[in-house]
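Journal club side-thread
Mid-discussion, someone asked how the predicted structure for our own chain would compare to the paper's figures. Pasting it here so we can look after the session.
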Amino acid sequence: MIRLIVSCGWICAVTVVAVYVTGAFLLGEPGATTVHKATEALEQLKTQPINVPMIANGKIEGYVVAQFVYLADAHRLKQLPVPPDVFVADEAFRTLYSTSVDFRHLDKYDIGALTRTLVAKVNQRLGADIVKEVLVDQFIYVPRSDISR
């Protein structure tokens, strides 16, 4: 009986020490805290949907409806007089309007290049590296024939 009680005590002691050592190791790991601090400083914001007319042969063929989510530096964001939403929407409109892509086949459109371009152009207009990443929330092509009058 005494053997059973001593062995149970030993198992409990080993378990407590193992949990303590594991917790201390994870809290002391420099990589985990660096990633946590880096993600704390980002703020997620969403633009209003934009409607971009697609013109071909002098006629409106349809509209691209797009909405974007972007991650921005929270500290620098507070210092701006104008929110970056306006710049992200404007650059998205300009980029989509100026591209000559067959929007009836959006599966071949390079969304990654679009988002990288938006980040570069918005940061250039803001004069600082504020927008870290642009994500696509909605990206829909509506042909003119589908629009009710």
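Post-session note: The beta strands are 42-46, 50-56, 59-73, 131-143.
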